[in-house]
Amino acid sequence: MHGISRKENQSKQKRKAQVSPVAATESGYEANLHPNLARRVWPELPNHQLSTLEAHIGLEFNHHHAQADAEAAGRVLVAMMKQVNATTVAELMEKMGMVPEQFCR
């Protein structure tokens, strides 16, 4: 059997997310991550859509364009990390009472 197993791939994604928020964005990790984390970091917001989160941190982006969406997701993730003084995505999740494994499926 060639390639890597699903379990190996999940482990690789977790390691990427621990290294940098950009790697987390590149892995597709943010699709479920942002709204769930943002609800805990900024519960006062009316919703936790990417456009709302981006506006909350004072930035604008070209919504529904893949590169702009990915860049916005990375900026929001970095802002959440700064908000709670986390240095990795895993640390951010732990501080917010979330289990990193649930996002690596």
Question: Would you kindly provide a written description of the structure presented here, covering whatever features stand out?
Answer:
- The chain is mostly helical and 105 residues long.
- It has one domain.
- Helix content is 61%, strand content 0%.
- It contains six helices and no strands.
- It has helices at 6-19, 21-26, 30-41, 50-56, 66-83, 89-95.
- The radius of gyration is 14 Å and the shape is globular.
- The relative contact order is 0.17.
Brief summary:
The chain is mostly helical and 105 residues long. It has helices at residues 6-19, 21-26, 30-41, 50-56, 66-83, 89-95.
Summary keywords:
single chain; about 100 residues; mainly alpha; 6 helices; globular
What is the CA-based Rg, rounded? 14 Å
Number of helical elements: 6
Quote the beta fraction.
under 5%
Q: What is the percent of helical residues? A: 55-70%
- Helix and strand succession? HHHHHH
**What's the total number of strands?**
0
Straight-line N-to-C gap: 21 Å
Provide the low-confidence segments as ranges: 16-30
Structural class: mainly alpha
Mean pLDDT: 75
Gross morphology: globular
The oligomeric status of these chains comes to single chain
